[in-house]
Amino acid sequence: MTANRSLLRRGSAGAPPHLHQRSAELFYLLDGALDVLVSDEITTLHPGDLLVVPAGVPHAFAPTSGSDADVLVVSTPGTARFDYYRLLDRLHRGQATGQDITDSQERFDNHYVTSATWQRRAQSQ
After folding, report:
1. Are 25 and 95 spatial neighbours (Cβ–Cβ below 8 Å)?
2. Same domain, 60 and 100
3. 92 burial type by CB count under 10 A (0-12 exposed, 13-18 middle, 19+ buried)
4. pTM metric for this prediction
């Protein structure tokens, strides 16, 4: 199992639509409010809510409009994603490219997909 606690500030983009072929992902909301896309449906989590996304199911997440989100994310079976988070940090600092992220999909089992539902949510924010 791999666990990661993330504090997503209001207005942040969160994680775009993606799927994991080899692991399920569990979201437990500690504080705030979190919108989570699962397939084509968006659910809003509140403190104490738990949601499990099975392997192979497209999903995305971001803080609900006007809210922060403090979330515990657990993947099982565990995968070595800490280097992926470091790669994302380098991307945000301009030290990596979108192509670097694309090239890492198999290594980190993080496969990006498109979602009209998530795109409509982003446009309405």
Report:
1. no
2. no
3. exposed
4. 0.88
